[in-house]
Specification:
Layout (H helix, E strand, L loop, with lengths): L2 H22 L10 H4 L5 E8 L1 H7 L2 E2 L17 H4 L2 E2 L3 E7 L2 E10 L3 H6 L7 E4 L14 E5 L9 H11 L7 E10 L3 E13 L3 H8 L5 E3 L15 H7 L7 H16 L2 H11 L2 H14 L12 E5 L6 E5 L15 H5 L11 H7 L2 H16 L4 H22 L1 H11 L11 H16 L23
Parallel strand pairs: 1-8
Antiparallel strand pairs: 1-4, 2-3, 4-5, 5-6, 6-7, 7-9, 8-9, 10-11, 11-12
Helix pairs in contact: 11-14, 14-17, 15-16, 15-17
Length: 467
């Protein structure tokens, strides 16, 4: 079965499963509770983390080694802005409960890079949970890892939810999500403190690969580079930190990866155009790029060279792309100039510096495929009224949890999710999708070439609430 056919079947089954899950609403304590029951986009769970003082001390960040390359941590560590700056997160122990279902001795650590730095003064820090690390076999809805995103840079508290939904609707692998009120208790120190409304994000791991590609025997990688698939010699150790493979790779997998890098870097233009489809799932990559460009997420492959995964499928020997970390989608990252310029991001050359994208978009067959996906999605999943309806679906479900954080945040939230929300600092989702749809339509019709990426915007440059 081809990857495209498997993807179509997976999407259909997921939709049927979602409908069934919503209809039955399996109780969280039931053995029939599934991931579809957990990841309901308008569901707000109640989550408690309970620490001893020693455990709480163990979660605090510590100084570590500094990364040697842009947005990369020290060798063997995690990557990203904070990791590059020498901040390390250690696992510690906690007890975890969700809507009254308790899991004892769960592993937990802080997560995030830019979001961690911005959250340090607020106390609302993103978290990663591993149910299985200390108690083998411990799972929730057959999942052993969960991510709790703090939404601190996410204007309207729903960028990731809506962006991931767009990717999934486009046939691109992307995590599912729901929401949670998160409470922290530290014995004899902190008495059940409300940290705020978080997003629960599905983890990208072997189970995710199995669900989306029909096999988990391939290689998941999380690159951090503006020079994707650049050949640096035959020693795989030179690539390991940059590409951060999530499992040990076989020698055959390493050789295939090096073969891809040699091809991307050294092939003639004619060879590249002829054989790119031997190394990359072009239909899936066109879908991935169409959604990424429409969302104007510049903290991505388009500019920073991060916040996505690639998967080397062992059956096709091709790479596919997976969406990740969408808090700056809908034009809410401070590159590309003003809000107006980001709404009008060019669809023809929307990246700042990437030899791989330069070469891929110079292939007529791929460029035509990408443009066809944009045109198709403009008529279907990118329609502004469709996304605005989704905003209106989520907003009333999560507003009470936002209001519990503060009255000021509730007023901010109302402004961002209203039909005429404030536009003087942060772009609203509703305002963005209307303007972006018109810009892409004009570009497809030949009326405009759009705006090029032009470096950091002025001021703070990041969307999202700051209190």
């Amino acid at each position: 079965m081809s990857a495209a056919a498997f993807r179509r079947i997976t999407i259909a089954l997921s939709l049927c499963s979602l409908a069934a899950g919503l209809a039955t609403g399996a109780d969280i304590t039931s053995k029939d509770f599934r991931a579809d029951d957990l990841f309901q986009i308008t569901k707000v769970w109640t989550v408690d983390f309970v620490f001893t003082p020693e455990q709480w001390k163990g979660i605090q960040p510590r100084a570590g080694g500094y990364g040697a390359a842009r947005l990369q941590g020290p060798e063997g560590g995690r990557n990203g802005l904070s990791a590059q700056g020498g901040i390390e997160f250690d696992w510690t122990h906690t007890n975890f409960s969700i809507d009254g279902r308790t899991f004892n001795d769960v592993a937990i650590r802080y997560k995030g890079n830019g979001t961690f730095r911005q959250a340090q003064n607020t106390g609302k820090i993103s978290l990663k949970v591993d149910l299985n690390k200390y108690v083998k076999g411990q799972k929730l809805a057959k999942l052993d890892k969960l991510n709790f995103a703090n939404n601190i840079t996410d204007a309207g508290w729903m960028n990731e939810e809506l962006a991931y939904r767009l990717f999934r609707d486009a046939g691109v692998p992307a995590p599912r999500s729901s929401y949670a009120r998160v409470y922290i208790t530290v014995a004899n120190q902190v008495a059940r403190e409300y940290w705020g409304l978080y997003s629960i994000i599905e983890d990208i791991n072997d189970k995710f690969a199995l669900d989306h590609f029909g096999t988990n025997q391939g290689v998941l990688m999380k690159p951090v580079t503006t020079n994707l698939f650049h050949y640096m010699g035959d020693d795989f150790a030179k690539y390991k930190q940059t590409y951060d493979p999530k499992d040990e790779m076989t020698e055959a997998q390493k050789q295939r990866f090096l073969e891809v890098c040699k091809f991307v870097t050294n092939a003639t233009n004619e060879e590249f155009a002829e054989k790119l489809g031997d190394y990359v799932d072009l239909d899936e990559f066109a879908r991935f790029m169409a959604v990424t460009v429409w969302l104007t997420d510049l903290d991505s492959i388009l500019d920073n060279g991060q916040n996505f995964y690639v998967y080397l499928n062992p059956e096709t020997q091709k790479f596919s792309f997976i969406a990740w970390d969408q808090d700056h989608s809908f034009g809410q990252f401070g590159r590309g100039g003003s809000n107006a310029q980001r709404r009008n991001l060019t669809i023809f050359h929307p990246w700042s510096n990437s030899a791989f994208l330069d070469r891929a978009f110079a292939v007529p067959a791929f460029k035509a495929l990408y443009m066809a996906k944009l045109a198709e999605f403009q008529k279907t999943i990118f329609r502004p009224e469709r996304i605005i309806e989704q905003v209106n679906e989520i907003a009333p479900a999560i507003r009470p949890a936002v209001a519990e954080e503060s009255d000021a945040k509730a007023k901010w939230f109302d402004s961002l999710t209203s039909d005429n929300g404030s536009d003087n600092y942060t772009e609203t989702i509703k305002g963005f999708v209307k303007a972006r749809a018109q810009s892409v339509a004009d570009q497809l019709d030949g009326k405009s070439q759009g705006s090029m990426v032009s470096g950091f915007g002025g001021g703070r440059g990041f969307g999202g609430p700051r209190f």
